[in-house]
Amino acid sequence: MSKNPIGIFDSGVGGTSIWKEINNLLPNENTIYLADSKNAPYGQKGEEKIIDLSIKNTELLLKKGCKIIVVACNTATTNAIEVLRDRYSIPFIGIEPAIKPAALQTQTKAIGVLATKGTLTSDLFHMTTDLYSNGIKIIERVGEGIVPLVENGRIDSEEMKGLLHTYIRPMLEANIDYLVLGCTHYPYLIPQLVNLLPKHIKIIDSGEAVAKQTKTILERNELLNTLTVHSKHQFFTNANNMNVIESLLGMDYNVSFLDF
Ligand code: DGL
Predict the structure, then answer these.
(1) pLDDT, tens digit (0-9, with 9 covering 90-100), for 80-131
(2) In terms of DSSP H, where are the helices of 174-241?
(3) pTM
(4) Which atom of ligand 1 is the closest one to the Cα of 119?
């Protein structure tokens, strides 16, 4: 058992969607969240840069005493998690687009995947799609421009609606019945997407699965916090967007600026 915090990082504000799932499932756990918003979006950067940034975030969370690290970013997971696991001895939990459940359940044999360029071009993503694409059409779209709008708190803007419309159209033409959200910024767009998509199309993301996996790995390593009554949550960002994160959290938490 350990009272040390769970460390969570993302390229920016999107990983708070994962933080919420973790906090729901593991309310006893203390957490530290890092939003590397100064360097967002990661999705347009090369693998080497994404690895460097992931190492920087990890080092800070380790300095703060985290017992496990959740890479709450598909782009960082698909490009850097193997390096992180090789380099550090604590457990890492990653997030990847939920291709498997969509591929197993699709009736129309067509699924859509919306993710960043960094995720869609990664080896890990190609390995997963190769495994599950047998007899299934996977329509991939880079959600270019979405992450910066979410980072700026412009979720409900007309610009966002226009981008989503553009990216979804070829998927509708291909008759998808599952849309996989492959970026942790995207769950905040679900209300918009529900308005744009026909009712039979199911939207799936990996947030809940990541929280369950975090619990499993904490249990397996005897690190689960069974003692804390009032858990402590710290949120840090290295850009001037504290208010965006506070409003996404939708609860009474303070977000602090930290130059990392
Ligand atoms: N939340 C990150 C992800 O899951 C966004 C990537 C980006 O910064 O482009 O991929």
Answers:
(1) 999 999 999 999 999 999 999 999 999 999 999 999 999 999 999 999 999 9
(2) 190-196, 207-220
(3) 0.96
(4) 10
- The Cα-based distances of 107 to 121, 128, 171, 200 in angstroms read 26, 20, 15, 11
Q: What's at 111, amino acid-wise? A: I
Distance CA(153)–CA(240), nearest Å, equals 12
Beginning with the edge strand found earlier in the chain, give each strand of the sheet holding 6-10 in spatial order: 92-93, 68-71, 6-10, 31-35, 233-237, 255-257
Backbone angles phi, psi at 246, to 5 degrees: -60, -40
> Rounded CA gap, 228 and 192, in Å?
37
Q: Which of 185, 189, 210 to mutate to test the pocket of ligand 1 (most atoms within 8 A of CB)?
A: 185
Q: How far is the CA of 233 from the centre of ligand 1 (A)?
A: 22
161-198 pLDDT per residue, tens: 999 999 999 999 999 999 999 999 999 999 999 999 99
Contact, 235 vs 253, CB < 8 A?
Answer: yes
Place of tokens 């359940």: 105
What ranges in the chain are assigned the alpha helix state H? 16-25, 47-63, 74-87, 99-105, 117-120, 123-132, 146-151, 158-173, 190-196, 207-220, 242-249
Residues having CB closer than 6 A to ligand 1 are 10-12, 14, 40-43, 73-75, 116, 119, 147, 183-185
